[in-house]
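User: Hi! I have a protein structure encoded as tokens and I'd like to know what sequence might fold into it. I'm fairly new to this, so please keep things simple.
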């Protein structure tokens, strides 16, 4: 499950389970948004796991629910793009040894995505703004076993 803020494409939550239930999804939504930071709207797909428990939780939190049309992934393009990026840039290159290992990999990718990864739509900035370092010796620090690198001044 991916929860993404559209404004700066900040990855809020990245969770994994083999059997997503409505209660699990409702808990992920509650954990992702502190009460003082709840969004006004939530765009989601029409998966069968989103039943009354999820819609009741959204209503209780004051979030307007906007399910996409059936079989229309382009209506939530930012989230679909992020899911594809996670697959292409991370999971296609790593052998996963269980759920705990997958959660560690995804946590490292989420940190990379929010803190370091550049986005063209954000003028090549990261979702959690990175200061530009103009002078000094540049060093590459490996991330995710060398799949990605953070280039920084030492």
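Assistant: Happy to help. Inverse folding works backwards from shape to sequence: for each of the 154 positions I chose a residue that suits the local structure. Here it is:
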């Amino acid at each position: 499950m991916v929860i993404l803020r559209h404004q700066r494409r900040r990855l809020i939550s990245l969770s994994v389970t083999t059997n997503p239930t409505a209660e699990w999804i409702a808990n992920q939504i509650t954990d992702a948004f502190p009460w003082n930071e709840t969004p006004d709207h939530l765009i989601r797909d029409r998966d069968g796991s989103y039943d009354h428990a999820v819609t009741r939780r959204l209503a209780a939190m004051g979030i307007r629910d906007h399910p996409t049309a059936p079989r229309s992934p382009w209506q939530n393009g930012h989230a679909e793009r992020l899911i594809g990026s996670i697959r292409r840039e991370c999971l296609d290159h790593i052998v996963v040894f269980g759920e705990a290992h997958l959660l560690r990999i995804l946590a490292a990718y989420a940190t990379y995505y929010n803190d370091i990864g550049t986005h063209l739509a954000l003028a090549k900035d990261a979702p959690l703004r990175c200061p530009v370092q103009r002078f000094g010796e540049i060093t590459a620090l490996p991330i995710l076993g060398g799949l990605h690198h953070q280039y920084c001044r030492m």
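A useful reference point when you look it over: Strands lie at 2-5, 10-14, 41-44, 64-67, 138-143, 148-153. Feel free to ask if any position seems puzzling.
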